[in-house]
Amino acid sequence: MTADAGDAGTRLDAFLAARGAAPSRAAAERLIEAGAVRVDGLARPKSHRVAAGESVSVEAPREPERLDLAEVPFEVVYEDEHLMVIDKPAGVVVHPAPGHHGPTLTEALAGRAQGGPDPQRPGIVHRLDRDTSGLLVVAKSDEAHCALRRMMRAREIERDYLALVTGHPDAETGTIDAGLGRDRARRTTVSTRTDRARAAVTHFTVLERLSRTTLIRVRLETGRTHQIRAHLAAIGHPVCGDAQYKGANCGKRLGLGRQFLHATRLMFSHPLAGEKLNCESKPPVDLRRALDAARREPVSGGPDGD
């Protein structure tokens, strides 16, 4: 569709809703955030003001795929009547979202996970990116969901990750305290270059320095979208295999098909029973193979080991 003189100056989300390309501005925003909207062939933010003559295209939604829950593998590390701790493999999406049309972990847990205000995400307390593997806790009741969310906000749930990053951090331990939000130029990417920063704090400890990479343990203090990936990229040490955050070359060298990021440990007091829970997950085979490959790499002549 082409904007005319009467549309000039209208926000992109409002333009889509007015033209009937989306049933509401909220729906239009979801389409924009999912990357389904182009203005003269380029992705634009929802606040973009259309100009007369601009061509706005919307990718037609795909037909829903047949839900095959057998395609959603996961392991239950701990379970009682109140909650579960799930070990999620890479490639599994936690809950339905714009741009994703396949089965999700939430759908696979239907009837077991419960609680929370969002019927599309019952029981979900926090999430992992599709290509991040490892542990997450899921509620089985409103009471447990409310308690776990409170604990998450109070930073009473310890979440540790293993990450292999490019190059070598200067310090053995460090804290990245930098607000994150949608990148000004790349709207599908999170970064510190944003107009709407939200507080984000990530701690890391070096576990093993290799010739061109470093294995680190990461602990989240906050839980923003893509936080670990964006923070490590911001300090010049992107996660190996993370094509979205400048880790593609490292991943290719090591034979990785996704980012080397694994949620390896969850530790918290049971919100209702009070017992201390300490759940751990070993890195899956693809990450172990990549780490072995990293240990065999010769020393690079580059400044950052990439």
Written description of the protein model:
The protein folds into 2 domains: 5-58, Structural Genomics Hypothetical 15.5 Kd Protein In mrcA-pckA Intergenic Region, Chain A, CATH 3.10.290.10; 69-296, Pseudouridine synthase. α1 (12-18) crosses α2. The protein is 19% helix and 24% strand. The model is unreliable at 62-69 (pLDDT under 50). The strands form 3 sheets. Strands 3, 4, 5, 6, 7, 10, 11, 12 and 13 form a 9-stranded mixed sheet that branches. Strands 1-2 form a two-stranded antiparallel ribbon. A two-stranded antiparallel ribbon has the order 8-9. With 306 residues, it is α+β, with helices and mostly antiparallel strands. β3 (75-79) and β4 form a beta hairpin. The chain has helices at 12-18, 25-33, 105-108, 142-153, 227-234, 248-254, 285-296, and strands spanning 37-39, 56-58, 75-79, 83-88, 133-139, 158-166, 173-177, 181-182, 190-191, 201-209, 213-220, 261-269, 276-280.
